[in-house]
Write a structure and sequence with these properties.
Layout (H helix, E strand, L loop, with lengths): L12 H7 L5 E7 L5 H13 L3 E6 L2 H15 L1 H4 L2 E5 H14 L18 H10 L9 E6 L6 H9 L4 E6 L12 H8 L6 E4 L7 H8 L22 E5 L2 H14 L4 E6 L2 H13 L11 E3 L15 E6 L8 E7 H8 L4 H12 L2 E10 L4 H4 L10 E4 L3
Parallel strand pairs: 1-5, 1-6, 2-3, 2-4, 4-5, 7-12, 7-13, 8-10, 8-11, 9-10, 11-12
Helix pairs in contact: 1-2, 6-7, 7-8, 9-13, 12-13
GO biological process, one term: recombinational repair
Organism: Pseudidiomarina halophila
GO molecular function, one term: ATP binding
């Protein structure tokens, strides 16, 4: 049996209080990893859809799929017929195309590969000039991981008539400079202090994993979550390995020990993603149980085929893991360092903050044995935060 529990948990007191806020107006919900931002987002959608049109938007296709699966299992098929879900990029294209099909004289927008490439000022100007500028007054919009979108996106939403927007965000999880800052988002939605809400309790990570993740905390615009009390008895461990095939065998053994566990393998680029997917699927190795399914998501042209309700191994680039959680996580450290250190130190810290906080029970970092003093200096040195072992012994 590989089936896992994939349903929304009971609301905590602080989460329940946020659901008690009026559904009308603009709201920003802040909280660190594991505080239940997505839990509140999904419950908010159910609450609104009971009487009004509700729309859920996420930047990341994997997060969108994950939330769809959780909501379907938690709310049932009937309730899901009342909730519209989409990725932000797809919805923006469909919205603009809809205006064209209705006979509006709107010029075609330049091709864009992502939501960051859209000219929001041109899009806003075209829609307003068409006379269709106030078309969404009655729709309640809920955005998860809202820090992923630029300020222009929120200016556009306001300009086309959205009057009820609920955004969940963690600005420690912004990975590029093209995303919104807290100040930009607050300014775009004209939020007052009482419109900015905060979650503080970490319900996902063990105490040990939370402390390790907190080492990489870098952006004070989202308050850090409180230290969780749940102790797993397992300190995050850096494993030095001479051959990556040893890491492949370790991951397969972990999956074989309990087929119900969902294991996340996080890499920095597609080259390493292909390596781990290929070898995890094909390496000849004696196992006690059936070989675990190995799934992945490579690029925006692919559909998401990951089943979060069953155990197995999921290999993803770090840009696709925000909002997700796994029982066990392996971070391919050399791969992450190669990509993020070429940007700046903050990019590396934020990536590590996101990646490490995906783990619920156990966290491993995989590194080759070549000396890299610059990388090691950016990892915790305290043994209570990180242990170091040799995988080849």
């Amino acid at each position: 049996m590989r089936e896992r529990i994939l349903r929304l948990p009971e609301l905590s007191d602080e989460q329940f209080k946020i659901l008690g806020k009026p559904k009308e107006g603009f709201w920003l919900l802040l909280g660190g990893p594991g505080t239940g931002k997505s839990v509140v987002v999904m419950q908010r959608l159910k609450q609104i859809s009971a009487s009004d049109d509700a729309m859920f938007l996420a930047y990341n296709k994997v997060l969108h799929s994950y939330c769809q699966q959780v909501m379907k299992r938690s709310f049932g098929d009937q309730a899901m017929t009342k909730i519209v879900t989409s990725t932000i990029f797809r919805w923006l294209g469909e919205f603009y195309d809809q205006q064209l099909k209705q006979g509006r004289q709107l010029p075609k927008l330049p091709d864009a590969k992502s939501a960051y490439d859209i000219d929001y000022e041109m899009m806003e100007s075209n829609v307003r000039a068409s006379g269709q500028g106030q078309v969404h007054k009655k729709v309640y919009l809920v955005v998860d991981e809202g820090q992923d979108m630029p300020e222009g996106f929120y200016n556009f939403l306001v300009s086309v008539g959205f009057e009820n927007i609920f955004v969940a965000a963690d600005f420690n999880q912004t990975i590029t400079e093209r995303q919104s800052t807290r100040e930009e988002l607050i300014d775009a939605l004209a939020l007052d202090n009482e419109d900015v809400l905060t979650l503080s309790e970490n319900y996902r990570n063990s105490n040990e994993i939370a402390k390790f993740s907190q080492f990489f905390y870098s952006d004070k615009s989202t308050p850090p979550s409180n230290e969780p009390t749940r102790v797993a008895g397992f300190v995050p461990t850096l494993l030095m390995c001479k051959y990556r095939l040893h890491a492949i065998k370790l991951i397969l053994r972990e999956a074989d020990n309990d087929p119900r566990k969902l294991i996340g393998v996080i890499v920095g680029d597609h080259e390493d993603l292909e390596f781990y997917v290929g070898h995890l699927r094909n390496l000849g190795m004696q196992l006690d149980n059936l070989r675990p399914p190995v799934t992945t998501y490579k690029n925006s042209d692919d559909s998401v085929e990951i089943d979060f309700a069953n155990g197995g191994i999921v290999v993803l680039c770090d840009a696709s893991v925000k909002g997700l959680e796994f029982d066990v996580v392996y971070i391919c450290l050399d791969s992450i360092w190669k990509i993020k250190s070429s940007v700046d130190e903050v990019a590396f810290r934020k990536s590590m903050y996101v990646n490490a906080s995906r783990a619920k029970e156990k966290l491993f970092l995989l590194k080759n044995q070549k000396e890299n003093r610059e990388l090691m200096e950016r990892l915790p040195s305290e043994p209570e935060l990180m242990q170091i072992g040799n995988l080849d012994e």
